[in-house]
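Narrative summary of target 7.
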Amino acid sequence: MHDIDIYDLPDLLDRTQRLIGLDPGTKTIGMAVSDRNFTVASPIGTIKRTKFKRDAEELKAICLDRNIGGIIMGLPVNMDGTEGPRCQSVRTLADNLQTIAGIELPIAFWDERMSTSAVERFLIGEADMTRKRRSEVVDKAAAAYILQGALDAIQRHLKI
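Modeled conformation, tokenized:
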């Protein structure tokens, strides 16, 4: 059950559940969670990618521990709006999380164009972070940026 319309996610969760935002990269998966009202995204960490089974077990444990009811995955769409190999990789990860790892949560995708570069610019300009420190936080911050964009869209949709 993935490629759910993002606006349908709130209706698929109960009032106690939250959303997790994922920024899947080749080396890490950045993570952020929403509050129960779907208004604020908070970065929570990264999973250092190793073997799929171990990564999926770690994600599954986090989802259970934090009462997650749905997943929003950043989709790295090309600047011209087309989907390339990186998008296919994210879609395959979503398929595998559900079919192989048994994570039975609805998954929606959110266009993550420019999320990492926007976060990098902020960390350099506003937060004045060193390169080493930025590398430690950029993935989870990008996940929060992705999730916050999706939450803002959901909130705008709910007010219509």
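The first strand starts at residue 18 and ends at 24.
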